[in-house]
Amino acid sequence: MGIERSLILLKPDCMERGHAGNVIARFEQAGFTLRATKMLQLTDALLAEHYAHLTSKPFYPEIVAFMKSRPVIALVLEGENAIARIRDLLGPTDSKKAAKGTLRGDFGQESMRNVCHASDSVENAAAEVKRFFPATEVF
Ligand code: ADP
After folding, report:
1. Topology of domain 3-137, CATH
2. What local confidence, expressed as pLDDT, does residue 39 receive?
3. Is this structure's pTM higher than 0.85?
4. What is the spatial distance between Cα 124 and Cα 127, in angstroms, rounded to a whole number?
5. 35 touches 5 (CB < 8 A)
6. Ligand 1 neighbourhood includes 104 CB (under 6 angstroms)
7. Which of 89, 114, 116 best tests ligand 1's pocket when mutated (most atoms within 8 Å of CB)?
8. Segment holding 84, helix H or strand E
9. Strand order in the sheet with 3-10
10. Burial 20-39, CB ≥16 within 10 A → b, else e
11. From CA 15, how far away is CA 117, in angstroms rounded?
12. pLDDT at 1
């Protein structure tokens, strides 16, 4: 535990449906601090690294097409026990199983269109932050 950082992606469904402001407000209201932010278009190469654990899944090509369908917003959030607390704020991968009051429960649609990515461990967060932001862009 202690102060942790998490890499967040506001996915294309979040951007298309106009939830970016609400989602960032929820993070701020929960006490997390923004350390980095930018809008970017994801590429095949970046997604192959980011979703390396999913490349053998039958739905991987669909995820790539979805994640490239419009620009996303990447954030680095910092706070006490951030990894677990942000995953709790998000709810489970399948938005239909997510409780109301969670980001996926309130703004998500299903397993793929589920609003946000958030790092799932301190180790992965460190790699993901480096993948999306040079050190000069993290404040
Ligand atoms: P999470 O994002 O909750 O950590 P995973 O790392 O398992 O979940 O999956 C990464 C992303 O791949 C999910 O957020 C979702 O967009 C997509 N995904 C995962 N499982 C499925 C599935 N069964 N069908 C479609 N898309 C999926």
Report:
1. Alpha-Beta Plaits (3.30.70)
2. 98
3. yes
4. 5
5. yes
6. no
7. 114
8. helix 82-90
9. 33-40, 72-80, 3-10, 116-118
10. beebbebbeeeebeebbbee
11. 13
12. 72
The confidence score (pLDDT) of residue 70 equals: 98
pLDDT tens for the chain, 139 residues long, are: 799 999 999 999 999 999 999 999 999 999 999 999 999 999 999 999 999 999 999 999 999 999 999 999 999 999 999 999 999 999 999 999 999 999 999 999 999 999 999 999 999 999 999 999 999 999 9
Strand partners, 10: 73, 116
Strand-strand pairing, 116-118 and 3-10: antiparallel
Ligand 1 in reach of 55 Cβ (< 6 A): no
26 in contact with ligand 1, CB cutoff 6 A: no
Q: Does residue 106's CB lie within 6 angstroms of at least one atom of ligand 1?
A: no
Q: Can you list the positions of beta strands (E) in 65-119?
A: 72-80, 116-118
> What's the token pair of residue 131?
């993948």
Q: Residue 4 belongs to what H/E stretch? A: strand 3-10
Alpha-carbon distance of 84 to 71, in angstroms, equals: 26
Are 86 and 32 in contact by the 8 Å Cβ rule? The answer is yes
The catalytic residue positions are 117
